[in-house]
Amino acid sequence: MRKLNEIFDTEYNTLVKDVKTNTKEIEDGDLFVCIKGFNVDRHDFVDEAKRKGAKALVVNHEVDSDLPQIVVKDTNKELASICTKFYDYPSKKMTMVGITGTDGKTTTSTIIYELLNEITKCGYIGTNGVHAPNYDDDSNNTTPTTEHLNRFLNNFYEKGCKYVSMEAGSEGLAQGRCEGIYFDYSVFTNLTHEHLNYHKTMNNYLIAKSTLFKQTKKDGYSLLNIDDPYAKEMSKYCNGKVLFYGSDKKADFRFTNVVITPDYTDFDIVYLNKTYNIHSPLLGRFNVYNLTAALGILILMGYDINKFDLNVLFIDGRMNDINLGQDFKVIVDYAHTPNGYLNLFELTRTLKSNRTIIVAGSAGERDKTKRPTMGKILVDNADLVIFTYEDPRSEDPNDIIDDLTSEVMDKQDKFERVTDRHEAIKHAIDIAKKGDMVLVLGKGDETYECLKDGKIYFNDIEEVKNALKDRLKSKVSQ
Question: Of 312, 345, 365, which one is at a domain's C-terminal end?
Fold first, then answer.
């Protein structure tokens, strides 16, 4: 809790317990910051805020209310400063690691989170939620809004965390959600076709992601994927010391001698003439990149990575092998971009199977331009693709499937349309035969589905398990 005159230059000494921008979240004692969005002006909700218990307002202009009002030039621009001051700059009290890129953010940040928690306390913020030892919370965004992000960071600190490993999404960075937070370490994984519905061009996309590196401390480190064509351009925006990782001989953290099997991945990391032998349960060449980036950060922190137990690594929603005793393989994975598909299929081709059956869709109200490419990659790498919805939001799922199939209409024998995702997953499980491989792609371990009328509970892993139980039960009763 803070007094207003501890946050602002004001005579008000009103005590407030939290900062909120959404009246739906307001509780008794909160400070309501009236930000202005594209469609909603929160200045219109001050009466509701008062009814909910708000004790003070931050506004762009005076409003009709008897609550204490702090007038600023632009509430949107002041929000980050308000939140960081209110929570007493929590990011300065911990070592901050930020990871950005189209693919690999979740895995890389989770590896850092899980390994650091073997020896100390670390918090995680990203696609898979908000977590720290003895603490879990929810976020609607990969990169939470400013007030939520600072609240989570403060909670981490109060739980004893020394480190934070967080994903920094391009839209969140572009919208200033990380403003006021400075990173000790930052990672760039890659930049491929995604989110162009928001950024419009790849250059805009790159500039949005560059924000993370501009907010890296001068005595910090930025670790960039040297094998990505955008790495050199991204390095121009780095504020801290720039190092590279990858397979290129010029990489500071260079991986080599890669061996990928259906059960494990082996490779070496060479840094400053020292070689580290890596044996990991995370499969695929894309995970070699993720592991090299994560372990590179730990080395820069001063840790001996040979002392970490990599066998504990498990990434929710990534290559989750579901086995209830069926005679075919079922894998649930979060892959939802063209590059994510290509990386995944490079791995699954090494796994022995008869037919490959894929369940996949594409998110509504997101980048439409990638859909034809996605559909073609799916059909080219499967014996059968079952196209379905994946968070259609206000879009007609059939229109999305039309986009996905627009470049493969000459291969209609290789795909089916089952609009309902529940039915699509069940159908894939029902038609699978001995030795087949079923891939359920796009949502991983997410626990929701965004439909036209709002969110519903939905989890691909649970759907797969239920479908498998029904199939196995049916076989027993025959």
Answer: 312
